[in-house]
Write a structure and sequence with these properties.
The structure holds two protein chains of two kinds. By secondary structure, chain A is mostly helical. Chain A is 72% helix and 3% strand. Chain A starts with 9 loop residues before the first helix and ends with a helix. In chain B, strand 19 and strand 20 form a beta hairpin. Chain B is of the alpha/beta class. The chains are: A mainly alpha, B alpha/beta. Chain A: The chain crosses the membrane at residues 7-25, 31-47, 56-74, 94-118, 225-244, 264-280.
Chain lengths: 293, 556
């Protein structure tokens, strides 16, 4: 069984992700984004000791560097000109914009990695099956089929290697031809076997009447409470954004990065929203500690 | 009142001259355990499908099927779908969902059951089957036997009154098959579910059956209690059905002096009781010829100290495995599931390269497939076919290997295998045995020296098995070396020369097949279990008994 944040009702988890992404997109401020990044990295480590994050880290660095470099090269607005490159001005504003883009990208990607952990396919499907029962069944079938086809293709590749059909060696044209043949075998085989699956489905009364859907999750009091907190926090957060706090103004004047006065209040709210899963996990950890005594 | 009754049911597939079912009439009482047997294509599966309305084949039909006294068609479709459940042959293809839990509730969702009721039913069923530990698993991680049990549980959750099973254990290893059949029997004994099972593992199902239906060419030839059916088949010398009789019964029928129907042994226990009454003096000991399995031993393929694992951190599949294959022999490798038998064959075929160790063929090291010399037939022959017709496949294969005057070679091979009639059909559209033969034709076309077979008897009926065995034996006499991995010990005992046991990635014993099975206490044939430690010479197969005991009748 899942625990901590993952044990919450899928709706709460989904809501968190929607709201977190909204907050990240709204609060375009390096200070805010840096903290969001920090919190989400910690969250990643709490979930799986950062294993998934490590796999993605190189790609994230490359992409963000690309943004950091390309934005000043294409965007020339702003009054603080740093230097000229190939007769075009590189401005401080554009550089900051690039930084913001790069940070946003990193934060969103880090968030997405945790999404795969917390919002497993069955939870996701559960959320949407209420509105789209047919589609959700179709998706569930495909969820099984993708790895199944993959395993079958591996098997075919091994067997056909013995017949001299190889995609690993030979001229490119031949390799493509062989590859297509292997896929053809895969398709014929799978279609053939698919008939049996269809039989087994109709043998279990599929399609005779309206299906029900097993609902493995119940909305507990705790979940409702969480929804209220998240909604309240985000409401306040959006109000802050509407006031113009927490957004780094680039034009016409570049705002200093340091926060002032009221912005700290909204920063706290921002941290509470982004760090929501960490709070839940932390609470559980503390409760566990006390229980052990 | 009969729970199921058929009255003159006939069925003809479209564009077929002969009916698949011809005037079949029978009735089944509630709680009966019925075994349906007969050669492939005798209409057994068609019959089950006719009873299971939702998947009834399309074609010309006549006659009526009654369920609880009312015509099947008069019932509400959902009720009938629920009350007549069916489990199919292939464990993998019946599965719809990704996880065990979802698979189990699939049927319940289809009949519109509310969540709370599903939970209660599932809790019961999971407890009964003891599959709690599997619930959250991905189905593809389960073994074939476990998958089939999940399929059974998923059907039983809908609380059927009649359970139809279409060769449910054909794809399973013997241990898993036994477990599965006992589970079915338990459902029959404890809950009174009526069972109709089409099965080829007769040693296992005959003792369980209340009645046996024998089908041939679409009609119900013989029906009755198992012992009566056996006696009838024997007395009428109904030869095509001999391979379908359990070997315990066959041994009795061939060697018992005065045949008593009640004495026909169905289980090893009964068989031993009969065998213990046999007297030794009737056996001419001088007749016992010494088997000399010491022909010229010329190693053709050597596997030396092989280590293999699929993933760096994964389990070691093969560990310091060494094996020598002699020219012209038929070697069988047996062992439990997951001991690396199939992997060993792939390594020998050069399809997977081992991390350590050497493979030597004819004194030369190799690490890539040398298909012209070492042929490999995978467990699922479907994987081999690329072309639309068997002929196309053969020609393609010939061109692939740049064979000279291949037409002649193809014709020769086709004739040997007797597959002329299916040459222009799609390889997927032919029967299991024919597909196996077509695949054999493809891999044997380049005239290899060694043939590697992975579970060649899987899904074949007893008759086809014997035919395949005899054919392979004839190829062996033409100089082909055969290495076979199998779970089918009866087949191995009858045909192979030498047997090896695999355990934890290693070969533990290698010896001549007869000694191998005589040395094993558990992993041995039914006939051997029946005759060991008695006053009669120990034998492994019915054929050996004929040879050793003589064909004369033995006095009780």
């Amino acid at each position: 069984m899942d625990n901590g944040f993952r044990s919450l009702h899928p709706f709460v988890i989904f809501l968190y992700y929607v709201l977190a992404i909204a907050m990240i997109m709204l609060y375009q401020h390096p200070f805010f984004l840096t903290f969001a990044c920090l919190l989400l990295v910690i969250f990643n480590f709490v979930l799986d000791q950062g294993k998934m994050l490590k796999k993605w880290v190189s790609m994230m660095i490359v992409l963000s560097l690309l943004f950091l470099i390309l934005t000043p090269l294409t965007n020339h607005r702003g009054s603080h000109i740093l230097f000229y490159l190939f007769n075009s001005a590189i401005t401080l504003e554009a550089l900051v914009q690039g930084l913001l883009n790069a940070l946003t990208l990193i934060v969103i990607l880090t968030l997405t990695i945790t999404f795969n952990y917390c919002m497993t396919s069955d939870k996701f499907l559960f959320l949407f099956s209420k509105w789209m029962p047919k589609w959700s069944l179709l998706v569930m079938l495909s969820v099984r089929f993708v790895p199944l086809l993959n395993r079958r293709l591996m098997e075919i590749t091994t067997v056909q290697k013995g017949k001299g059909l190889s995609v690993a060696s030979g001229p490119l044209k031949q390799r493509i031809k062989h590859g297509l043949l292997l896929v053809q075998v895969l398709l014929t085989w799978s279609l053939e076997d698919g008939i049996q699956t269809a039989d087994s489905m109709s043998a279990r009364a599929y399609g005779l009447q309206k299906r029900t859907k097993y609902t493995p999750y119940k909305l507990h009091m705790n979940d409702g409470f969480m929804i209220l907190i998240l909604a309240g926090l985000t409401g306040t957060g959006i109000f802050g954004w509407w006031l113009g706090d927490g957004v780094l103004t680039l034009t016409p004047f570049l705002e200093p990065t340091i926060l002032y006065g009221r912005e700290w209040v909204f920063f706290t709210i921002y941290v509470l929203i982004i760090g929501f899963p960490l709070i839940v996990e932390g609470k559980e950890a503390i409760q566990w500690q006390y229980w052990k005594r | 009142m009969a729970i199921l009754e058929t009255v003159k049911v006939s069925f003809t597939y479209p564009n077929q001259l002969l009916p698949a079912l011809n005037q079949v009439s029978f009735s089944v009482e509630p709680g009966e355990f019925i075994v349906i047997c007969g050669p492939s294509g005798s209409g057994k599966s068609t019959l089950l499908r006719m009873v299971k309305q939702e998947i009834a084949p399309y074609g010309e039909r006549s006659g009526e099927i009654f369920y609880n006294g009312k015509k099947l068609t008069e019932y509400e479709p959902v009720k009938i779908a629920k009350e007549i459940g069916m489990v199919f042959q292939d464990p993998e293809n019946q599965i719809v969902m990704d996880r065990v839990f979802e698979e189990l509730i699939f049927g319940l969702e289809n009949i519109g059951m509310p969540t709370e009721t599903m939970r209660t039913k599932l809790a019961e069923m999971v407890h009964f089957f003891g599959i709690n530990h599997l619930l959250d698993k991905k189905i593809h991680l389960l073994s074939g036997g476990q998958k089939q049990i999940v399929n059974l549980a998923s059907v039983l959750l809908m609380e059927p009154r009649i359970l139809l099973l279409d060769e449910p254990t054909a794809q399973l290893d013997p241990v898993a098959a036994k477990d599965f059949l006992h589970m079915v029997k338990q459902m029959n004994d404890e809950f009174g579910i009526t069972v109709l099972i089409v099965e080829h593992r007769l040693e296992e199902v005959f003792p369980l059956a209340d009645r046996v239906f024998v089908f041939d060419h679409g009609s119900l030839k013989i029906s009755g209690p198992p012992k009566d059916v056996i006696a009838k088949v024997w007395q009428e010398q109904y030869r095509p059905l001999f391979p379908y009789l359990p070997s315990t019964a066959l041994l009795y029928l061939e060697h018992a002096d005065n045949l008593q129907i009640v004495d026909i042994p169905l289980t090893v226990k009964e068989g031993r009781k009969w065998a213990s009454q046999l007297k030794t003096h009737q056996f001419d000991t001088s007749f016992k010829k010494q088997e000399n399995y010491n022909e010229k031993q010329n190693p053709i393929l050597q596997v030396k100290n092989i280590y293999f694992q699929y993933e760096k951190t994964g389990k070691k599949i093969l560990q310091s495995l060494s094996l020598t294959i002699n020219e012209g022999e038929w070697l069988t490798i047996v062992g439990a599931n997951g001991t690396g038998k199939s992997t060993l064959l792939k390594v020998m075929a050069g399809l997977e390269s081992p991390q350590r160790g050497k493979l030597i063929y004819n004194g030369k090291k190799y690490s890539k497939p040398i298909s012209t010399d070492i042929a490999y037939l995978p467990q699922n022959p479907k994987l081999l076919f690329i072309q639309d017709t068997v002929r196309g496949e053969l020609i393609e294969t010939a061109q692939q290997f740049h064979l000279e005057n291949y037409e002649e070679k193809i014709n020769c091979l086709v004739e040997l295998l007797g597959i002329q009639s299916i040459l222009d059909r799609h390889p997927y559209d032919v029967s299991g045995g024919e597909m196996q033969k077509s695949a054999l034709a493809c891999v044997l076309l380049p005239q290899p020296k060694i043939l590697l077979l992975d579970e060649p008897t899987k899904g074949l009926d007893p008759e086809m098995k014997v035919a395949l065995g005899k054919w392979l034996k004839s190829m062996q006499s033409r100089g082909l070396t055969i290495v076979m991995v199998t779970h089918d010990i009866e087949f191995a005992a009858r045909f192979s020369d030498r047997s090896a046991m695999m355990f934890q990635g290693e070969i533990t014993v290698t010896t001549s097949t007869k000694d191998f099975f005589k040395g094993n206490a558990f992993y041995t044939t039914v006939v051997n279990r029946m005759t060991r430690d008695g006053n009669i010479p120990e034998v492994v197969t019915v054929e050996e008994a004929e040879e050793k005991w003589g064909s004369q009748k033995i006095k009780n």
